[in-house]
Amino acid sequence: MKIAVYPGSFDPITKGHLDIIERATKVFDKVIVCVMVNSSKNYLFTCKERVEMINECLNGMEKVEVDSYDGLLIDYVRMRNSNIIVKGLRAFLDFEYEFQMALTNKHLDNEIETFFMITSNKHSYISSTLVKELVKYQGDVSDFIPKNVENAIHKKYEEGCKK
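== Phosphopantetheine adenylyltransferase ==
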């Protein structure tokens, strides 16, 4: 069974992320969406909130599981009996960073392979950071994120979040 791990902060998850998940399920037997925790990052949503939003977005999509992890990605990949990491690429700047991470992971564990999936054109400019910035200034994000995520992010900002 080919199990792929799709890691990210997903703060929040976008339609671009969902596109990668859906396409990865056509290639791999199982896709684990892993919400990674990075103590140096300042998140808008808690890890639990991100996992819940993603589960709601996936609405029981077959072959997909959502989990979270606080540690090295390669340790998580091994723990889940996988050797496959899936990463979405939007632009060349993504490639540079992800290439560096893939080589580092390969150095730490030669059995781990990273598969890059190019984001669909219609999602290529969307990022979680862009979504948060648009919401902060009352921009329309309905084309970029699912409705449940849009409701959650508006609620965060209404509660006084200034990120």
